[in-house]
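Recap from last week: sequence in, structure out.
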Amino acid sequence: MRSNRWIAPLAALALLASAGKSLAQDAIADFYKGRQIKISVGFSAGGSSSLYAQSLARHMGKYLPGNPTFVVQHMPGAGGLVAANYVYNNAARDGSEFAITARTAALEPLLGNQNARFDPLRFSWIGNANIENSVCVAWHTAAVKTVTDVFATELIVGGASSAAQEVMFPRALNKLLGTKFRIVTGYPGSTEILLAMERGETQGFCGIGWTFLKLRKADWLKEKKINILFQMALEKHPEIPDVPAILDYARSGEDRQVLELLFAPQEMGRPFFAPPGIPDERVRALRSAFVQTLKDAAFLEEAEKQGIEVQPLAGEDIQKLLERVYAAPKPVVDRAKAAAE
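Predicted structure tokens:
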């Protein structure tokens, strides 16, 4: 007969482990109870990032121990770098603040932008709300109607700052592929860029998310007020298979590698991140609450009404993606730097 002499000690260890887990949960709940969590948005109100943050703020408290409340603060500027710099250098490192900003912001230190005062590999990545395919569009009155036109005819496009994808992407395409974009910067966010195009201040927007476009500007598509020139992503969106992928216009394998590096952040379309240095157990709690919120029936119903897609990506997966990007061969990184400048 097998000896039972280990049963009692093992049971005691199991009880201790369970008690330890319970104490950790209690400590997290004690920290968050009665607290207000701030979500900073790197753009002006009304854009997709703001919608994701507002929806998250209304539901995430159900899944974070202690059930804190949430408040959203808009912090536009420098294509999302103002918010990223704030979170890295000034935000509280206790799990009471996190942010959403431009997905391309994580590339800026790699590309040598001195205004990016953060190390993206040290952020506490909480999770990603969707995978984004960006498109380049032209207003219907512009001479540019198709992707081939933009190689021969100038198209004036609006953008925020040099760090914003709607500036970085067309600038890189000019240098790598020979397109003829003229970029006007200084707009706080997508809401203002779209308004500028409608008013005739600009002629296009080369870096708007397809999801945002189809759901927030469905009337433009229906009334043919815009022409979709091409997609900017590692893979085409299944809903617009006939819209060309600009990757296919790369003139060499090296050019394609550079564009793939620049487009890699599209995989983390709406990334949420917190400062470095947060206690591990609170990072885990935030990540768990984020994932549960994005599966919540009420959140999903609200997201559908607001027209925002939900394709969760775990914070750990964002970290792995960025580690791969930052491990790119130096010649590819150097060419990406030169293209994005």
